[in-house]
């Protein structure tokens, strides 16, 4: 099924659809370039007097469309942009401002952002809005990946004789990458190895920027001060075991090596508030009423 969204930028004749769960972009059907009459090129005379083809400025639309379609953004974010994010408190307003500043300040020295907080605060919304703005405004190559889904794809690739490197290379080499749902999963040694491989490769490359979202918050100071003693001084073994098996903080989930790299690669932005999803009204088509025969 396809659901057409409004154009992100009224100056660009591009429309975005949700097609089978994937973001799909295309030129508006009614668009015809007034400069080249839809040919995508112009005929100009070079220094020697020879006629030669040169790309029309509308060729940029084709490049943007390809970048959007290759970015891997889920189709449910077809309508997502900065203007559709509605912050309700100071932390969300700050996150929105930092996301917009990231786009306007984008360049060799810019650091990534790690959006963290409870589910339903718009972390992925902001990350996707950044990717769309970079593609549409600056024609920057970007990639989006749900880390848990990437792990699933790698496991599936084993049965098709695909190497791990072949599957992760597009994400390792992308100039801008969003890793969604960081630290989600069982946190096995293999999962940690895959994550470390991607992050270390990007950490060592000076020309790549990475953004993250995570439901696990950075609370390392509290984590360091945490103890396993109850109020009467006895050790709470059940609490100690639970925290060891399923650590709650981002630093505990990632481990010191990966976490240390993130602190150098990104600015940490914590969003607070309540999950907006329970307040979303879902309209469903009513089923026809069937009369029972007597």
From TrEMBL:
<keyword id="KW-0067">ATP-binding</keyword>
<keyword id="KW-0547">Nucleotide-binding</keyword>
<feature type="region of interest" description="Disordered">
    <location>
        <begin position="213"/>
        <end position="235"/>
    </location>
</feature>
<dbReference type="Pfam" id="PF01695">
    <property type="entry name" value="IstB_IS21"/>
</dbReference>
<dbReference type="GO" id="GO:0005524">
    <property type="term" value="F:ATP binding"/>
</dbReference>
<dbReference type="GO" id="GO:0006260">
    <property type="term" value="P:DNA replication"/>
</dbReference>
<dbReference type="InterPro" id="IPR002611">
    <property type="entry name" value="IstB_ATP-bd"/>
</dbReference>
<feature type="domain" description="IstB-like ATP-binding">
    <location>
        <begin position="105"/>
        <end position="215"/>
    </location>
</feature>
<dbReference type="InterPro" id="IPR027417">
    <property type="entry name" value="P-loop_NTPase"/>
</dbReference>
<protein>
    <submittedName>
        <fullName>ATP-binding protein</fullName>
    </submittedName>
</protein>
């Amino acid at each position: 099924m396809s659901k057409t969204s409004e154009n992100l930028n009224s100056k660009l004749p591009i429309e975005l659809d949700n097609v089978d769960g994937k973001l799909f972009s295309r030129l508006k059907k009614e668009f015809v370039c007034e400069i080249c009459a839809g040919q995508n090129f112009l005929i100009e005379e070079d220094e020697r007097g020879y006629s030669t083809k040169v790309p029309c400025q509308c060729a940029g639309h084709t490049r943007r469309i390809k970048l959007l379609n290759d970015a891997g953004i889920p189709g449910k974010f077809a309508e997502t942009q900065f203007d559709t994010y509605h912050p309700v408190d100071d932390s969300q307003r700050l996150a929105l401002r930092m996301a917009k500043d990231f786009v306007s300040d984008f360049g060799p020295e810019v650091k990534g952002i790690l959006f963290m907080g409870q589910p339903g605060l718009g972390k992925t919304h902001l990350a996707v809005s950044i990717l769309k703005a970079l593609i549409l405004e600056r024609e920057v190559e970007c990639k989006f990946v749900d880390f848990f889904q990437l792990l699933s794809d790698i496991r599936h690739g084993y049965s098709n004789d695909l190497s791990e490197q072949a599957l992760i290379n597009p994400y390792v080499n992308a100039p801008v990458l969003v890793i969604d749902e960081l630290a989600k999963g069982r946190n096995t040694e293999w999962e940690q190895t895959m994550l470390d491989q991607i992050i270390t490769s990007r950490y060592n490359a000076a020309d790549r920027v990475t953004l993250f979202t995570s439901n696990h918050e950075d609370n390392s100071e509290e984590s360091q001060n945490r103890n396993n003693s109850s109020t009467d001084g006895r050790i709470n073994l059940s609490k100690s075991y639970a925290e060891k098996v399923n650590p709650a903080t981002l630093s505990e989930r990632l481990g010191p090596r990966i976490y240390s790299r993130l602190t150098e690669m990104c600015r940490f932005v914590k969003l607070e508030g309540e999950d907006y999803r329970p307040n979303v009204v879902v309209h469903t088509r009513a089923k026809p009423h069937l009369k029972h025969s007597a």
